[in-house]
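Troubleshooting log. The previous structure file for this entry was overwritten by mistake, so regenerating from the original sequence record. Sequence copied from the archived sheet and checked twice against the printout by T.R.
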Amino acid sequence: MTRHYSAFNLLREGLRGHKGWGRAWRSPEPKSAYDIVIIGGGGHGLATAHYLVRNHGITNVAVLEKGWLGGGNTGRNTTVIRSNYFYPESAALYDMSVQLYEGLSRELNYNVMFSQRGMLVTAHSEPDMEMAARQLNAMRLNGVDAELLDADQVRRFEPALNFGPNMRFPIHGGILQKRAGTGRHDAVAWGFARSADAGGVDIIQNCEVNEFIVEAGRCVGVNTSKGEIRADAIGAAVAGHSSALMKKAGVELPINSYALQAFVSEPLKPVLNSVVLCPPFGTYVSQSDKGGLVIGGGLDRVPSYGQRGNMPVQEAVLSGLAEMMPSLSKVKLLRHWAGIVDVTPDSSPIIGPSGLDGLYLDCGWGTGGFKAIPVGGWLLAHLLATGKHHEISRPFDRNRFVSGYLIDEGAASGIAH
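Regenerated output below.
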């Protein structure tokens, strides 16, 4: 009965131009002042607003987005969620995010489509297997689930992988994290937006920050395309444009921005059981609920703010996929795009004070931004509400680049995405 009623509603709204649907969140004009202003209406900014309301009872909050909600990196990623990192600090950070994702649909009363199908990282030599065992031991010591598979176990788990005699990098085994998986990027943004709006947060789209207002050495507001807005504390969560935004505040960040490309294929019948990453090819792939293959690779190491791809990277990623799984070599692509990621020297995020009093950062996630949306929001909300670090965010303060206590996951985990 409900199914027929919903189909009728959809047809009716389509015939009248979709003008009858209720708004999922308000579109208010900005007030002149708030307790807290968050710059960036993507996943991290919206999650921060949600946790300010939920965890700290702070509702006089504005989220400023220069474009449309979720229109930046939140809508331009491959939606992988995992915590298979090496260092204890990273494991605590990303596994907290996985745990938050596990209860997020219930918490938001909105299905974010978190599918814990697992993630398999393959190993292609005996030295690779030794490093995989090292990684596995580190993960387990850090309280993160993982299994070490041999070649036969990998073959049974993902039979579409290439085990032929002519494979350039024969598969010897791999690491499987069963709690990893994928989510729905727009559902995550929309769920947090609905919750924040219901809590009284003003979500203001098409509102670009042009400059920061600094008085007596403290950031007290922003000048925007919609006028001056003041606040007791300001948080910035703008992903690939972090360094450009912070230059407006006179803050220099050790960040480079790069394009990260991705692809979606035509829909197929189920051929994959998990997210699969083959490090020698720098290619990873999962299958969406609609059947399309979601394909990604490494960074295009030319600094850029262009949200577009290029043929050399496309050729490298797709040729890797064709060798990983030859049966997919004739599959047609539907879309190709790029997101802009902000990368630090140690491939770990910056969470904490910016160096300008009153201004706090949630940035430098590189290729890990989507998987970290809940924990990024939780930790930035804590900073904005208390002015102090949470124990999990403290190791990711920008001062580590002065002290030398880096968390180099790029080297330790061999992050390719």
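The first strand starts at residue 33 and ends at 39. Archived copy saved in two places this time.
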